[in-house]
Amino acid sequence: MRLLNLCLLVAVAVGCTDPEVFSIRPIPAQRALVGEELQLELVLVDLGGAIPSFSLTSPTLPNLMTRSSPPRFTVFGDRGAYLRWSPIASDVGVHQMTVTARGADHATSQTFPLEVSSGDAAPVFLKPLGAGMTLDLSRDDCFRFRVEVQDTDTVSGSIQLEPPIEQGFALMPAGDWLADFEWCPTEEQINRKTRYLLNLVADDASGHTTRKSYTLILRDAIGDNCPGRAPRIEHMSPSDLPRDASIQLTARVTDDIGIQTPPIVYYRVATATANTPLDLATFVNGNMELRSGTPTDGVYGVSIPLSFLPATRTEIEYLIEVTDNDDPIGNCDHRTTSPNEGLHRLTLTPSESTGMLAACDSCAVDGDCLSGFCALQSDDTGVCLNRCQMGAGTLVCDGIPRGACCGDTLVECNAQTVNGNGLIQTPCNGPCGWSADDGRYSCRPSHPADPSGQFPNSCPENGGCGVGYACTTAAQISMSGQTSTVCQPTGGSCSALCVDDRFEPNNDVSEAFLLASPNEILNELKLCGDEQGTESDYYNVFVPQKGELTVEARFLHSDGDLDLSLRDAQDQVIDLGFSITDNEIIQACVDPGTYTINAFAFEPLIDIGYSLAIDFAESTCCAEDMYEPNNNNNTAPLIFAGTIDPVLSICRDDLDYYAIDLVAGETLVVDILFDQVDEMGDLDIFVHDLNDQRLTPCCQLDNGQSVTPDEHLEFAVMLTGRYFIVIEGYAGAQNEYLMSVEIR
């Protein structure tokens, strides 16, 4: 932090004085920058009693003491106080400032001129939050929302739209750094596509522009009783998560054709009671991204920044929604949500390291950081950064109110200097250190340093930033609205501090590292994430024959969340491991061939060490089919008459459920074809109702439950409704099968 202050180093006479007759030493003219803290030492003369209270006023800044971040006064010893204050953009100009000290029966003041100059900060978008907004066309016809920008050194600037600009987009100025957006899509626009990009740009006319892309989603009604399968969402809502800068949500989405648009997460601060039907306008949007797999079977993830969550709240609620595109020219598509009804609810627990996070750790609020400054990032997340102690690249009169020793050179504050850094540097031609007689650093030392530790003997440079960091020239904004120059990594990004492992580059499937054998242990691996929160390590493994492939990633979840996937040569996901605990393990039955192991993480700036244990054992294992999990009526896919592709499988002690809608008077005919050597390959067919009651009793040798290969079942429908075809292995048998369904 660049601190512009004047250190008044005048000895205070001590004698028999009236405790309520005191004065403030004169204060010379001061200069300050917007967004950077002014620090001024106030020395009281002839103070004989308790330290009085202080205030700062100015006729040209009438709201000074009532602001959200007013001037602060910190008592210093028994002779005065420090004034600390960060000017804002509207303070630019010259002001007459008055400091007043008030005791019980006495008050005294000093007036001094202050020139506030603009800093070098860029604008930041505060609203709208998130990645986009959804317009539910069944409830409203238009998008309407406020755009708000903050700039620490500019009172106002322009907010504009950048191409492509759709017909009907309207952005209307609403005040300093404020604008209102409105768009009422036409019927043609609604029919053309469901997602439109809004490109916003903020310009402060001082050489700084900031852009924000915001997705406008049109949510129309969908048809009823549409053919085809609806997408399936597999999502486990965490029971609780630490309150970090952001939280990561993942889901596995499968669809018979493949989804064309990614799933959407709708989230908000948890309400006392959920509104029914849900008003999506009350939610913030997050667009999930495909992290692993394909649009027919893939893992999607999203990072939700917690900047929308007030510091006093700990719960959020959300839902995940995906719509397929089975009917490209109409609305006979399928929409699936998780959960099916209501909302997921998530409680955030205080981070164990609250107030202890170091530089470049992800954070949610300023109080998470040792520095007390959680810098707001462009993606609405935060990262801890240390405040600069001084201006970049030089010494200034700050942090050394009693001087400092730079080797054998004495550095002192010159009370009469207004321009420059206000310092006098004097070679001592001998030792430099603390003088007990003068109460300051001197060329006549009695100690190497101040014995009390109150005035450190330091000569910091580069803003006091450590090795690998440099002080920013422009003030940054924190998650709670503070402004300060900060120590930023010299590489420009915290991600540069993470050191990759020896297998890099393997961040893409085309760069996958080929393992020497399917039985290996790899240690000292590292995932290094960037500010976008995406990182992957890929490894290829060749399997010589059919068998069981086991991959275990070993890591500490407290260091970050790592997930695993296994994909075949066609890039299809075979198995996943995405828990929220230590370690991940996946097991899959595989045929001979090459497979890809993907270790990945969603967290921004992740820096996590891990090891991989890969084990292969030849066996006649059972591979689950594409419809899994369909082990009960709640997970059963809806099917229709015809041949069910592809080859299906029953694993040991498994059940396969398939839902089908039937009309009274119809006859359901089901055939399954399979090879059978002994009873451990024997499969049977049953029909269940909505209550999961078996309607075709065992054991009808001529109707679905023979002891020979293949099975044929016929079922007469008495009542219109939904039924379930259930395939079961006899006594825990497992086998592959083909199935056809006919309705007569």
What does this structure look like?
The protein has 744 residues and is an all-beta fold. The chain has seven domains: 23-117, Immunoglobulin-like (Sandwich); 124-219, Immunoglobulin-like, CATH 2.60.40.10; 232-349, Immunoglobulin-like, CATH 2.60.40.10; 362-389 and 467-497, no CATH class; 404-460, no CATH class; 509-618, Jelly Rolls (Sandwich), CATH 2.60.120; 642-743, Sandwich (Jelly Rolls), CATH 2.60.120.380. 1% of the residues lie in helices and 43% in strands. The strands form 15 sheets. Strands 18, 20, 21, 24, 25 and 26 form a six-stranded mixed β-sheet that branches. The chain has a five-stranded mixed β-sheet with strand order 39-41-46-43-44, with no helix packed on it. A hairpin with a 2-residue loop joins strand 22 (289-294) and strand 23. The model is unreliable at 1-18, 390-396 and 415-421 (pLDDT under 50).
pLDDT averaged residue by residue: 81
Find the CATH topology of the largest domain: Immunoglobulin-like
In the CATH hierarchy, what is the class of the largest domain?
Answer: Mainly Beta
CATH architectural grouping of the largest domain: Sandwich
Rg, nearest Å: 34 Å
Shape descriptor: elongated
Work out the helicity level.
under 10%
Pairing-aware structural class of the strands and helices?
A: mainly beta
Number of β-strand runs: 54
Helical region count? 1
Q: In whole angstroms, how far apart are the ends?
A: 80 Å
How much of the polypeptide forms β-strand, as a percent range? Answer: 35-45%
Unreliable runs, pLDDT <50, ≥5 residues? 1-18, 390-396, 415-421
Major beta-sheet overview: 6 strands, mixed
Number of domains: 7
CATH homologous superfamily title of the largest domain: Immunoglobulins
